[in-house]
């Protein structure tokens, strides 16, 4: 497999140098001198968007053309009759667009299908997804492909009224539900409240960091196992957990993955990196060479008992952009990942949605409650829990402001940069 990966890498680099003005200038000499991949420059999302017109290998394509298509009445149609396009905002706040030709798109769908098969999902499985509402998002597009090869399932998305989603799930009775980790919490609350009546054997998650408490919630609500998948809009489906649910197997025949530190040096397996670098081996219209994803990734140290030939990500601790800074007990500051605060939030009964915002000397938390819960009681319990969690890492915020609202959306973030986890997140 590694030999095949090397052959594909050489082919995509050669094509990029020959067909992309950007890569001809940035890596042409390196490729000519057989430089190792580690010597190649890193491509950030900002650089990808700034140089998009010179990176794509079809001169008819441009960022303006792609964005115009995404903003049209039918963004799910083929651009120029042959390209599928998608967009992402992401945690970084930088808009990104992606283009897939037929071969690249089939590879992305092929990865999805084969990884689903390793957890027992085939064309006869009563399986469905609850993801984004628009074909602009890659999760919507992949969901449409999966519906095409299976028995008809209701078309649900996370922006629908929860009553409509519950009714659709109760009618369909899926064996497998695929959705965002944050929405697993929403569905579990509906199940535990007695409004949702489904018995899935498996929950598949994607697009957000999967915390351990989501696995616990799914086990409590349905006695179901949760398996995580790994997809990037710009690259497509990159990996999936097997039934061991002990790390994400990476599609190393379709990508080259590098986990590096803040200075772009490779870190050993078992050590958290500062970023993940991805080189795509199947998309020849938008080649990505050492594309930077700011996920804090730790690779496994031992092979998986399942026997798959793909190495695994042992843990994803969210993204660098989700780091919060607080005054440290005794002086100085301490950085805490927002992921650490999710467990106290999700364990408190009554909280339906939540949102963090960094303050100069503390933290603002906005929450939305389920019906019938006392706001003052939840607010007091939440502040105690968050302060207790932060004290374990010597963080001592001067203030924690908690406000209760009717609903939380991304558009409500205003000028502050917020970390959002809610059922509206797409």
Task: Briefly characterize the structure.
The protein is built from twelve helices and 20 strands. With 426 residues, the protein is α/β, with parallel strands linked by helices. The relative contact order is 0.11.
Number of extended strands? 20
Q: What would the principal axes of the Cα set say about the shape?
A: globular
Largest sheet: 9 strands, mixed
Described by its quaternary structure, the protein is single chain
Could you explain the architecture of this structure?
The structure is a single chain. The protein has helices spanning 2-19, 21-32, 45-50, 52-55, 63-70, 102-117, 138-148, 162-172, 181-192, 212-222, 342-347, 375-391; strands spanning 84-88, 96-100, 127-131, 156-157, 176-179, 202-205, 225-232, 236-241, 248-250, 255-260, 275-280, 291-293, 295-299, 312-319, 323-327, 333-337, 351-359, 362-369, 399-405, 418-421. It contains 12 helices and 20 strands. The protein has 426 residues and is of the alpha/beta class. A 9-stranded mixed sheet has the order 4-3-5-6-7-8-9-14-13, with helices on both faces. Helix 1 packs across helix 2 and helix 9 (181-192) runs parallel beside helix 10. Strand 7 and strand 8 form a beta hairpin.
Blueprint of the fold:
Elements: H1 2-19, H2 21-32, H3 45-50, H4 52-55, H5 63-70, E1 84-88, E2 96-100, H6 102-117, E3 127-131, H7 138-148, E4 156-157, H8 162-172, E5 176-179, H9 181-192, E6 202-205, H10 212-222, E7 225-232, E8 236-241, E9 248-250, E10 255-260, E11 275-280, E12 291-293, E13 295-299, E14 312-319, E15 323-327, E16 333-337, H11 342-347, E17 351-359, E18 362-369, H12 375-391, E19 399-405, E20 418-421
Parallel strand pairs: 3-4, 3-5, 5-6, 6-7, 18-19
Antiparallel strand pairs: 1-2, 7-8, 8-9, 9-14, 10-11, 11-12, 13-14, 15-16, 17-18, 17-20
Helix pairs in contact: 1-2, 9-10
